[in-house]
Amino acid sequence: MNLSELPLTAFIDPQGKNHQEIEQLASQVLDLILSHLTTAINHSPLPEIGDFTDFVSIPENSISESILLEKLNTIITRSTNAANPGYMGHMDSMPTTISILAELVAAALNNNMLSVEMSPILSRLEFNLIKQFAQLFGWGETSGGVMASGGTLANLQALTVARNRAFNSHTLGIWNQTQQPVLLASEVAHTSLQKAAMLLGLGTSAVIPVKTNINSQIEIEDLKRQI
Predict the structure, then answer these.
(1) N or C: which end of the chain has fewer CB within 10 A?
(2) What does the alpha-carbon distance between residue 206 and residue 197 come to, in Å, rounded to a whole number?
(3) DSSP letter string, 15-34
(4) What is the pLDDT of residues 150-178, one digit of tens each?
(5) How far is residue 54's CA from residue 46's CA, in Å, rounded to a whole number?
(6) What is the pLDDT of residue 2?
(7) What is the CA 168 to chain-centroid distance, rounded?
(8) What 3-state DSSP class applies to 77?
């Protein structure tokens, strides 16, 4: 790639040479977002999508910022309008203002949470925050964990740790088990458990559903029978 052909705002110059241009571009993007969110009540929670055939095609050559902003505006206006008061969030509700800005900060810093060396502040922040969360649940000083992007990944990570501890399978896997490992779960549990069982080599049939009552609580007697 010829860097001289990149737009002036492609990266934030570490010497601040394009400060004004970056600020202008950021302001334009922010204006589009605010224009949409501050009038969200006037737009349906479920917008018309229309024909996206040409929109999603990869251009052969670079396009101008003005065209990019037009496309961004199309994306914004044709996305689910979670800010509309009539929208009932199932999984994705309207974010707080500070969380939107925090996403911007995290993206700009771009620290990798793999290790303290690569993320000296945020990795320590994660460690301390998770410990506080654990203590709120009464799990004690030695408890901890990691942040996950969502419930599906969190379930996968939790079951991976449980499998490795239960069968000492971190190195050798589960091929030498004399019996089929199973997972007992509520019959209304999230489908991510079946996905996790498949990825962990247990198979979806290893997830044994346990009956629930009208309040979606596990029936203890059925749990005993399944065990």
Answers:
(1) N
(2) 7
(3) T-TTHHHHHHHHHHHHHHHH
(4) 899 999 999 999 999 988 888 888 888 88
(5) 22
(6) 62
(7) 29
(8) helix
Asked if residue 223 lies in contact with residue 208, where contact means CB atoms within 8 angstroms, the answer is no
pLDDT per residue over 52-96, tens digit each? Answer: 766 667 777 778 899 899 989 999 998 999 999 988 877 788 889
Query: For the chain, what are the domain ranges?
Result: 3-109, 113-147, 150-226
pLDDT tens per residue, range 5-24 = 788 898 999 999 999 999 99
Q: Are 195 and 159 in contact (CB under 8 A)?
A: no
Q: Which residues contact residue 212 at a Cβ distance below 8 angstroms, ignoring those fewer than 6 apart?
A: 186, 187, 188, 218, 219
CA distance 127 to 216: 33
CA–CA dist 215, 155 (Å, integer): 22
How far is C-alpha 157 from the geometric centre of its chain's CA atoms?
14
Tell me the per-residue pLDDT of 128-151, one tens digit each, with 9 for 90 and over: 999 999 999 999 888 888 888 889
For residue 82, which of 91, 71, 92, 73 has the smallest C-alpha distance?
92
Confidence of residue 50 (pLDDT cuts 50, 70, 90): confident
| C-alpha count within 13 angstroms, C-beta hemisphere, residue 81 | 22
Q: How far apart, in whole angstroms, are the C-alpha atoms of residue 35 and residue 66?
A: 17
CA torsion angle 186 190 195 196 (round to 10) = -70
Q: Domain 3-109 belongs to what architecture? A: Alpha-Beta Complex (3.90)
Place of tokens 């206006």: 77
d(CA 51, CA 22): 32
